[in-house]
Design a protein that fits this description.
By secondary structure, this protein is of the alpha+beta class. Helices cover 23% and strands 33% of the residues. Helix 9 (380-386) packs antiparallel against helix 10 (396-404).
């Protein structure tokens, strides 16, 4: 007998659901009234699913509305998947498959163009049509080895870098971020809600994940317009009267190359800072090449990050930009899924049209592979070598790369 799957009915369902979520992520299952009130005020519980064994919740799944930037700077509605768990006592019973099916069906009914998630484990989500579409890197910089002259002030070009309060950042940064995620090379960026900014600036307190103490700085161009910002923390480590201080970047967003260069240079010019660490940087971050000695920037992590699941293939392919004109016919395999079909893409820098067709296919691939290609980061040629896509005629993968690949690698700055 299958266990019942349902959405949460009201906030009274939250304590049991949150307890199951904590167990799934190997945390203590105790849930406070403060946490319940905090989540109830933030979530649309009609988009939270649970599987129940009697009165006990044993599996969780939640989605929320998201805007995902595609190559070219246009954003499409996406269903962001999060809080996915199955209790260890109920594994291998098909619970995740049932929850995923319900969540993706709901997303399609909402006319979402795709679904997104950050995968805790790589092997799980490919079978549900998700493909890794944007990667992430962590970097550690030995500041003393960079070759930068500590006696010279940070080069800010014609602009300025100033420290600001959390309140000031809350007023300036949302506008900067909105301009950033609309840039042509910002594929993979997602929107941030007003509540996100309140948490980021400390105006709202998360009882489970309290905000550390951060410094915040803003870059302004010569006209005084904010073009970038950074939030960072520092420790206070000294040995034998010498500083061994680490600055850790939480969030660095820039809308211009000058802002990006100035903020990195500012961070490496802070007195006493000998190590700079930054997590979840773009996979092709310019940081190492900003240094006289790029080897001072050591890559500590390079991994998949944002996964994309196509739902509406024509809308997904028509909403992005293309640098060159061309055409491509894709045969997409998606058993019992909405992406299945054969599609003719006719694209040009002025716009694109994607329709179902009976023309013979150039490439055959599954929905997960299309998700991997959707943000312009991965090479169709490489996927063909791996056997993940099939060329129906020689050169089709190279043709796909000419159309689909973006100049800069996709990057999602946000965990969700």
């Amino acid at each position: 007998m299958s266990l019942p799957l349902r959405t949460l009915r009201d906030p009274s369902d939250l304590p049991g659901w949150l307890g199951a979520l904590a167990v799934g992520f190997l945390r203590a299952p105790e849930v406070t009234d403060e946490e319940v009130a905090f989540r109830a005020g933030a979530w649309d519980i009609a988009r939270a699913w649970g599987v129940y064994d009697g009165v006990r919740c044993v599996a969780t799944y939640r989605t929320f509305a998201q805007q995902l930037t595609l190559p070219g700077g246009r954003a499409v509605p996406a269903s962001a998947v999060t809080n996915v768990t199955v209790s260890a006592t109920h594994r291998r019973r098909g619970l995740l498959t049932r929850m995923m099916g319900a969540g993706l069906a709901d997303a399609r009914e909402r006319s979402d163009v795709c679904a997104t998630l950050i995968a805790a484990e790589y092997p799980i989500y490919g079978r549900y049509g998700f493909g890794p579409a944007a990667w992430t890197t962590d970097v550690a910089v030995d500041v003393l080895r960079t070759g930068l002259d500590p006696r010279r002030p940070a080069d800010t070009g014609e602009g300025t870098v100033e420290l600001v309060s959390a309140e000031e950042l809350g007023k300036l940064a949302p506008g900067v971020h909105e301009r950033f995620r609309a840039l042509p090379d910002s594929a993979g960026a997602v929107d941030r809600s007003e509540r996100w900014w309140r948490l980021h600036t400390g105006a709202l307190h998360d009882p489970v994940d309290p905000l550390p103490v951060y410094f915040r700085a803003v870059y302004r161009d010569a006209a005084g317009e904010p073009q970038g910002f950074v939030s960072y923390a520092v420790d206070d480590r000294w040995e034998a009267k010498l500083p061994h201080v680490t600055a850790t970047v939480r969030d660095l967003i820039a809308t211009t190359p000058a802002a990006e260069r100035a903020l990195w240079r500012y961070l490496m010019a802070i007195d006493w800072v000998t190590t700079l660490k930054a997590s979840n940087c773009p996979p092709d971050d310019v940081l190492p090449l900003l240094l006289p000695d790029p080897r001072a920037a050591r890559l500590t992590t390079h991994a998949d990050f944002l996964w994309v699941r196509p739902l509406d293939v024509p809308a997904l392919l028509e909403s992005r930009s293309y640098r060159v004109p061309g055409g491509l016919v894709l045969e997409v395999h998606d058993p019992d899924g909405p992406a299945a079909g054969r599609y003719a893409l006719d694209a040009a820098p002025e716009g694109a049209r994607c329709t179902r067709t009976t023309r013979s296919a150039d490439l055959t691939l599954d929905a997960a592979a299309l998700g991997t290609l959707s943000l312009g980061d991965e090479s169709a040629v490489r996927l063909a070598v791996l056997g993940r896509i099939h060329e129906e005629h020689p050169g089709a993968a190279a043709q796909a790369d000419a159309l689909l690949r973006a100049p800069r690698r996709a990057w999602c700055p946000d965990v969700f």
